[in-house]
């Protein structure tokens, strides 16, 4: 009879462990996953994107519009306290009529009392080719008079899922009267 009791004991212990594992997995807050198995991720690769952002502050169809302003912003040379929303076109060349590759949809704030500098949170929404429907999420501080300057890529969607990296920005053209600008973007995104 000993072999029968042993088999029953092993079966009972196995069932108990399986039951406890099910209970534990249902109540767990977090668990480790194999990204390659769970999300079918390919090895990481680096993509370089070059495009031009057209920031139109004045004119018939502005793409950057102030939505909040500190009472002292008009008296400030840096427009400190001004917050704007943005929906700027992204093109393949500095010519606004060149091929549209996406849009920069953002919120930025003039956040320095001593220099022209913006704190930005932005989604680069791509509409062209293999990147159509993909986005890069960007965050950072950009001192406008510095060339080059950098923003951080903190994430992405679509082709750029799990992205990280950086963007170098250079002012290509700036009109002091209208305050409209064209900015060259060189984005380096590490993604799967």
From TrEMBL:
GO biological process: phenylpropanoid biosynthetic process
Chief localisation class: secreted
Cellular component, GO, one term: apoplast
Signal peptide per UniProt: 1-25
Transmembrane segments: none
Keyword set includes Signal: yes
Subcellular location, record wording: Secreted, Extracellular space, Apoplast
UniProt keyword terms in alphabetical order: Apoplast, Secreted, Signal
Domain of life: Eukaryota
InterPro entries: Allene_oxi_cyc_Dirigent, Dirigent
Subunit annotation: Homodimer.
Family label: Belongs to the plant dirigent protein family.
Protein's job: Dirigent proteins impart stereoselectivity on the phenoxy radical-coupling reaction, yielding optically active lignans from two molecules of coniferyl alcohol in the biosynthesis of lignans, flavonolignans, and alkaloids and thus plays a central role in plant secondary metabolism.
Official protein name in the record: Dirigent protein
């Amino acid at each position: 009879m000993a072999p029968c009791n042993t088999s029953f004991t092993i079966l009972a212990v196995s069932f108990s462990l399986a039951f406890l594992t099910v209970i534990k997995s249902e109540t767990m807050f977090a668990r480790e996953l194999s990204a390659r198995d769970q999300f079918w991720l390919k090895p990481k690769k680096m993509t370089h994107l070059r495009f031009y952002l057209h920031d139109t502050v004045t004119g018939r169809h502005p793409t950057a519009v102030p939505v909040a302003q500190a009472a002292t912003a008009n008296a400030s040379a840096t427009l400190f306290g001004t917050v704007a929303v943005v929906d700027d076109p992204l093109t393949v060349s500095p010519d606004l009529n060149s091929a549209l590759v996406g849009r920069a949809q953002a919120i930025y704030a003039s956040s320095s009392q001593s220099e022209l500098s913006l704190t930005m949170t932005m989604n680069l929404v791509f509409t062209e080719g293999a990147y159509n429907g993909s986005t890069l999420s960007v965050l950072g501080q950009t001192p406008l008079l510095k060339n080059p300057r950098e923003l951080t890529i903190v994430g992405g969607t679509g082709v750029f899922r799990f992205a990280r990296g950086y963007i170098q920005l250079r002012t290509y053209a700036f009109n002091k009267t209208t305050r409209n600008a064209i900015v060259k973007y060189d984005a380096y995104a590490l993604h799967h």
